[in-house]
Amino acid sequence: MPTISTDMQACIEQCLRCYQTCLGMAMTHCLEQGGAHVEPGHFRTMMACAEICRTSAHFMLIGTPHHRHTCGECAEICEECARSCEGLDGMQDCVTACRQCAESCRRMAA
Length: 110
Hints:
mainly alpha
């Protein structure tokens, strides 16, 4: 197995935390709140964010250099998700996880 740098390990952890936060909040908080929380564009963005975070973590864990591509896309989608969640009640955990993940993924994509 390739050696995982400290920065990469931190990014993997941020990606997995964001995956867990976005998926968890979508399936509990958003579904329970209804209204704007389940508006199709917002909900799809949350699902896309969770999936790209999971994929980026997996690419780093398997040691493929293609993680730079997934991490670049992950940063973009995380920022989009953070913006989408910012205007909704009770979504600060998601906003924070997305912004931290985006920052970490931008470093991995560089």
